[in-house]
């Protein structure tokens, strides 16, 4: 969304590129990836799985979040942010539609699955799910807390950071890359 990765778009509120719609394009791309996955699974199961005996899976990269403060708004913010992570892709594949939290926040920015597509998605079950988890971040509610828009998690109306406002980092810094810390209690404890 911030223009660092292809296609290099970074429109408002993430940047000032001359082209693109950063607030919608990631959801269109994700939608097409989900539909492509369903089509590939369908073809593999019909034509090749019987002969090859292979399994179908998907690997997701997901963060985990801990609330900045022990408040209801920050706890709800964690739930919203998690919906915009792995469930963004897994919910349609497993249940046939996006998480309720995403649908409620994004409205028409989030593409709709046609009834036939939902049926196909639900019929292309996974044999396994792989999970890549690299870091846990503190999370602050964006709706009732004044803070900058988060370039990655902004649509969930949250702000994430590896350091709380009082300077306390989440876990131990193990890689000298911004926001990658070792947190033993990450990924849901």
TrEMBL record:
Organism domain of life: Eukaryota
GO molecular function: beta-glucosidase activity
An annotated GO BP: carbohydrate metabolic process
Entry protein name: 4-hydroxy-7-methoxy-3-oxo-3,4-dihydro-2H-1,4-benzoxazin-2-yl glucosidebeta-D-glucosidase
Family: Belongs to the glycosyl hydrolase 1 family.
Record organism: Panicum miliaceum
InterPro entries: GH, Glyco_hydro_1
């Amino acid at each position: 969304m911030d223009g660092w990765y292809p296609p290099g778009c970074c429109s408002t509120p993430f940047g000032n590129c001359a082209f693109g719609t950063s607030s919608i394009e990631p959801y269109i791309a994700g939608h097409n990836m989900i539909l492509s996955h369903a089509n590939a699974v369908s073809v593999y199961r019909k034509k090749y799985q019987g002969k090859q005996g292979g399994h179908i899976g998907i690997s997701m990269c997901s963060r985990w979040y801990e609330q900045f403060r022990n408040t209801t708004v920050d706890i709800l913010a964690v739930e919203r942010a998690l919906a915009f992570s792995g469930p963004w892709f897994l919910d349609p594949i497993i249940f046939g539609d996006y998480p309720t939290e995403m649908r409620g926040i994004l409205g028409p920015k989030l593409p709709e699955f046609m009834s036939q597509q939902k049926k196909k998605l639900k019929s292309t079950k996974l044999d396994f799910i792989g999970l890549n988890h690299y870091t846990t971040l503190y999370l602050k509610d964006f709706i009732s807390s004044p803070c900058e828009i988060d370039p990655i998690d902004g649509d969930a109306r949250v702000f994430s950071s590896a350091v709380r406002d009082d300077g306390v980092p989440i876990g131990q810094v193990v890689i000298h890359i911004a926001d990658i810390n070792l947190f033993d209690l990450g990924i849901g404890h």
